[in-house]
Amino acid sequence: MAKEKIIIGSDHAGFDMKEDISRYLAAKGFVVADAGTCSALPVDYPDIGVVVARKVSAGEFDRGILVCGSGVGMAIVANRFPGVRAVVALDEETTRMSRMHNDSNILALAGRRTDGKTAEKIVSVWLETPFEGGRHQARIDKITELERELGRGK
Hints:
Structural class: alpha/beta
């Protein structure tokens, strides 16, 4: 069975964490694409968030990971795209619930608030937790319908 394709990106505040997570994912056998940034020099987070979210929205990648100082800016950008359900995850339980109930497909991490070991645990939980479907699928369907209503849907 082929491993998922994951695209990852960060701004300057999340650069080191992005590099660490990229290595972690590659070691686990995932196909990883790096959307930048390529250094810790200042860059605007929307520029990177758009690349990742657009590719997840288009189905080019199964999931995406974004890292900025708080995770919030990246999640705001990503959630503008149809079919994207980005979550800011600061702990394992939020991460688990975001997968089980919301089928999150973009994980936004806080490079300035989360240590490397915690980030690795969060990523691991996010990758290993399945979507429960059922009553939760009906709620995702409502979000999809709302996207169409607002002219953002596929």
